[in-house]
Amino acid sequence: MPGFELFGDKERKEVTDVLSTGVLMRYGFDGARNGHYKALEFEKTLCDITGSAHSHLCSSGTAALSTAMAACGIGSKDEVIVPPFTFVATFEAVLQAGAVPVFGEIDDTLCLNPDRLDAVLTPKTKAVVPVHMCGAMARIDEIKKFCDRNGLILLEDACQSLGATFQGKHLGCFGKAGCFSFDAVKTVTCGEGGAVITDDQTVYDICHQYADHGHDHLGGPDRGADDHPILGTNYRISELNAAVGLAQLRKLDQILTIQRRNKQILKHAMKNLPGITFRHLPDPSGDSATFLSFMLPTEDKARRAAENLAANNVPCPYWYDNNWHYFKKWHHLKQMAGAAPMPAQLCGNLPDYTRVNLPESDAVMKRTLSMQIMLSWTDPDLEKRVAAIEKALTNI
Ligand SMILES: *Cc1c(COP(=O)(O)O)cnc(C)c1O
After folding, report:
1. Which residues are responsible for catalysis (predicted)?
2. Using CA atoms, how far apart are residues 45 and 182, in angstroms rounded to an integer?
């Protein structure tokens, strides 16, 4: 998912536009900015791409999640169902909102299993936050049905899945709001950045207000004349970051085309290797193809495959052992639950996460490896990779 591989003249041009005026803030300074509104232009482009009615750019994907939670009214002691395979930012944002992350099981989509949501539903459940991991979709139509049936908010963490679709509709567009990240290693990068998309005018209004100290942005050129209908914070993006992202976002089609081609070549080469199966994709045509995720028949074989692949210069993350992406290694969450620096209302009110058991998620994650798909691979690189994969995965 590395937009940074295509960094060049177009990014420099957008940044130079901003530097030539010296107006680094997205709001105000109308006379001095020489017509440059990079954050605004980014947001319009993101709406065009996703088909969402509104988008708001923030300082990070984590900030976008927090902003979306605020705009959806997720707060004190509400329970929010999240998957145990994600980046820690998802549960951090829930905790920041003063809400309680509750972990549901994942399945071979590597995302929340809609059939296991009932098992963690309680009267306090307010929202479900599926995470479309590694560039592709959860069983989002079924998760949406579960939310509708139970009166829950659906908020999608699509931070890793910009450009991915399910049945033609962009991920992030299925619920009340969706979030993207544009950090340094995502499909499109601003350096640091993130966005909320929504079709709901009220959710959008709260997003842009919340991320800018509650400003209603109705005061005209004088920011001091804005009113403040809500309390907020500062999750603003700078024009410099937005400028980088704008150039990157315009390359999204190119990025997706290269990723899909490279992934297809590798997947095709692995198809007939004994014992290898692939992550289940509910709609393969909508995969953004940032990763190729595959399963071995057993944990032992997966560990051996990871070692063999690394020894053949094809390192593949084994998420089950990963500190940042899988629940099993989130000791900081398990140890700190209920202690400072949690929002005060959570102290003493979080479940004992050391007792949370996720046997189905463990069973999937133990067997799964993922290969990141790079944009810069040449055809000879791909051929070498195919040969290395065949060597590493034969006779496991
Ligand atoms: C990257 C990421 C985030 C957070 O984004 P930042 O921009 O790094 O704050 C949230 N969720 C997931 C699944 C991510 O991969």
Report:
1. 186
2. 14
Structural contact between residues 150 and 126, judged by C-beta atoms closer than 8 angstroms: no
The token pair that represents 216 in the structure block: 């209603």
| Count of residues making up the chain | 396
Which amino acid is located at 167 in the chain? Q
Give the C-alpha separation, 29 to 300, whole Å: 61
Instruction: Please tell me whether the peptide bond between 130 and the residue prior to it is cis, using omega within 30 degrees of 0.
Output: no
Nearest Cα neighbor of 157 from 148, 174, 166 is 174
Cα gap 377→356, rounded to integer Å: 41
Among 159, 185, 327, say which to mutate for ligand 1: greatest number of ligand atoms within 8 Å of CB. 159
Domain limits, the chain: 3-252, 253-393
Domain 3-252 shares a fold with domain 253-393: no
Q: What percent of the chain has pLDDT over 70?
A: 98
| Coil/strand/helix, residue 336 | helix
Q: Which residues have a Cβ under 8 Å from the Cβ of 285 and sit 6 or more positions away?
A: 165
Contacts of 294 (CB under 8 A, 6+ apart): 270, 276, 277, 278, 279, 368, 369, 370, 371
What's the pTM value of the predicted model, to 2 decimals?
A: 0.97
Name which of 3-7, 159-163, 182-186, 340-344 the model is least confident about.
Answer: 340-344
CA gap 325, 370 in Å, rounded:
12
Architecture label for domain 3-252: 3-Layer(aba) Sandwich (3.40)
pLDDT exceeds 90 at position 62: yes
Q: Which amino acid is at 111?
A: C
211, exposed or middle or buried, with CB in 10 Å at 0-12, 13-18, 19+? buried
Fold classification of 253-393 is Aspartate Aminotransferase, domain 1 (3.90.1150)
User: Is residue 186 annotated as part of the catalytic site, yes or no?
Assistant: yes
What are the start-end ranges of the E strands in 112-211?
Answer: 125-128, 153-157, 165-166, 169-170, 177-181, 194-198
Of 38, 186, 251, 328, which residue is the catalytic one?
Answer: 186
Please choose from 160, 235, 244 the residue to mutate so as to test ligand 1's pocket, defined by most ligand atoms within 8 A of CB: 160
